[in-house]
Design goal:
192 residues; 2 domains
């Protein structure tokens, strides 16, 4: 999805702000902050975030997600296992018998609901700053960007935006299939 916006196949995308993505995408101010958390088995000796980055610990996360980018830079000793998508992290964690699942708090809570023997660690490992972005090739302050930023201010803090963050997989500000025309912009929803 980042490539759709970076390659100008879409005018606007919805993304977690990350320095790597920032090379090709100019971001607005974040419209929501999302907590990245760890999930472990109830009987796991891992009780704090500091205990995650240890040799022999496998951390399952969604391939290409914001926390994949972040943890790939931060974890030095733990092994990263990439699930195909963020919604498959908990299933992959359970099927592979891994020690830790990493993801968005709401997604982990939802996926763990009804499954006995799982718990979230008490602290977050990162805050994901979710924002809208335009191709950097158009300039951070270009014409599309100015119009876009004005519209964006109306979406920040809206009920629609707040509602999207309560539902796993919710994309704040998107309202249809990828590539939908909304006003003067072609939108392409991103993911955390």
């Amino acid at each position: 999805m980042r490539m759709k916006t970076s390659n100008e196949q879409a005018d606007v995308g919805f993304f977690a702000i990350d320095p790597k993505r920032g090379a090709t995408i100019a971001f607005t101010a974040p419209y929501v902050l999302i907590e990245g958390c760890y999930l472990v088995r109830a009987d796991s000796p891992i009780a704090t975030n500091a205990k995650v980055d240890q040799s022999g610990v496998r951390v399952v996360l969604g391939k290409g997600s914001a926390y994949d980018l972040y943890l790939s830079r931060e974890l030095r000793h733990a092994e990263i296992v990439r699930a195909p998508t963020s919604p498959t992290v908990v299933r992959t964690f359970l099927e592979q018998g891994a020690e830790v699942a990493a993801g968005v708090r709401q997604q982990l809570e939802s996926d763990a609901a009804g499954k006995d023997g799982l718990r979230l660690l008490g602290e977050r490992f990162m805050v994901i700053r979710q924002a809208m972005g335009v191709p950097r090739s158009r300039g951070a302050r270009g014409g599309v960007s100015r119009r876009f930023r004005r519209r964006h201010e109306g979406w920040r803090g809206s009920r629609r935006c707040a509602g999207a963050t309560r539902h796993p997989g919710g994309d704040c500000g998107t309202s249809g299939r990828p590539g939908r025309i909304a006003g003067p912009f072609r939108f392409w929803p991103g993911s955390c």
